[in-house]
Amino acid sequence: MPWWDLGSLSRLRIFGGGFQAVSGKRDDSSAITSEWNSPIDVPLIDNKNEERQNGIPEVQLGSHTVRSHGVAVARTHMHDWLILMLLVLLEIILYIIHPFYRFVGKDMMTDLKYPLKSNTVPVWAVPMYAVLLPIAVFLVVYYRRRDVYDLHHAILGLLFSVLVTGVITDSIKNAVGRPRPDFFWRCFPDGKELYDEWGNVVCHGVSSVIKEGHKSFPSGHTSWSFAGLGFLSLYLSGKIQAFDRRGHVAKLCIVFLPLLVASLVGISRVDDYWHHWQDVFAGGLLGLTVATFCYLQFFPPPYHEEGWGPYAYFRVLEESRSVAQAANMVGMHNLQITEAQVDNQEEESSHGFLGLHLADNQSALTSLDVESGRR
C-alpha cells in the first residue's frame, strides 16, 4: 500500500502530545509506534473541547508556579526591578529635600488658621492598606490558580503604581509649596504673628513641622490610596469578570469597595485640616490615573473577555499551543512514514516468496528440457 494511503487506519487517537494508531488490518502498528508514543514535554493544551470553569479556562494553570518558573520570570523583568529600586531611592530624596517656601502674607492667613490636629489615618497605615492588602489578595488568587505570571505581574504593577505616584506627588509637592490649612499654627505655635518687611511670614515653630506645612498640594495619602486600592479594584474587576454583560451588579460592589476606602481616606485629610479639597481631588485623580496605566501595562482591560489573566500568561499559552501543534504534525508525519515502512516490508516479503516459486518452476522446466533432449 502506498505510504500516502491511510485507508487502513480505522482511527487516530491523540494523548496530550503523543499518538496511537489503531489499524484495521494489523496490530503490529501500535508496537512499531510505541517508541514515539511517549509524552512530550509540552504543557497540555485543550482547544475547543476544554470546558471553562467560572468563565476561566484551566489550560496551563498550575503548570507555572513560583518554584518552577519564579526565578526565570523575575530574571526576565530584572530591568523593571532595577528601575523600581531607582524609584525608591528617588522617593527618599524627594522626601528629604525642602519644598518651595511660597510667599504667605498676613491676608492669606485667614484661610490657614484651622486647628492643628493629628492624622486620622497615620502615615504608617498607608503602606498597610495600599500595598500589603492588595499583595495579600494576589497571594490568595495565586494559591487558587498557581500562576506565577499573574502573581509576579500583579505585584510588580502594584509597586510601580504606588512608587510612580509617590514620585510624581512629592515632586509636585516640593515644586508648588502650597501651605496646609493649619499652616498658621505650624508657623506660630504660640499664636504670635511675625512678618518681615515684605509682609511674608517669619515662622518660629519647629522646622520639621513648618517644612511639612508647605506640602499641601497634592494629597499624598489620597494619591497613594487611589494608586494601590485603585490597582486592586482593577485587578478584582478582571478576576471576577465584573463586565461580562450578564448584569451581576453584586460584582460592582466588590469593585467599588477599594475605591470607597480610598475616598474615605481622602475625606479624612480634609476633616483633619491637613489638605484643601483641591489637594484631595488632584491626589485621587493622579493615583487612579497612574494605577490604570500600570495595570494595563500587564493586564488586558477588565471588560475584555481575557481580562482575568495577564498578557504574559496568554503569550506563553499561545507559544505552548504552537509547540503542541508542531509536535502533532511531526507525529502525524512519523505515523505516515511508519505505515509506509510496514507496507513496503509486506510487499517485499510477498514478492520475495512469489519469486522463490517462480525460480523453482523455472529450474524444473529446465531439467525436463535437458532430459527430453530439447537442450
Would you mind describing this structure in some detail?
The chain has 375 residues and is mainly α. It has a domain at 69-100 and 130-179 and 218-317. The protein has helices at residues 28-32, 66-76, 78-96, 125-145, 148-176, 183-187, 207-213, 220-239, 250-271, 277-298, 311-372; strands at 9-15, 18-23, 52-53, 56-57. A two-stranded antiparallel sheet has the order 1-2. A two-stranded antiparallel ribbon has the order 3-4. Helix 8 runs parallel beside helix 10 (277-298). The longest helix is centred in the last third of the chain and has 62 residues, at 311-372. The chain is elongated, with a radius of gyration of 37 Å. Mean pLDDT is 77; it is low at 1-59 and 352-360.
Largest sheet data = 2 strands, antiparallel
Instruction: Give the spatial strand order of the biggest sheet.
Output: 1-2
Taken in chain order, the helices and strands follow as EEHEEHHHHHHHHHH
State the total count of DSSP E strands.
Answer: 4
Name the assembly state: single chain
Beta-strand content bin: under 5%
Unreliable stretches: 1-59, 352-360
Share of helical residues: 55-70%
- Number of helical segments with 4 or more residues: 11
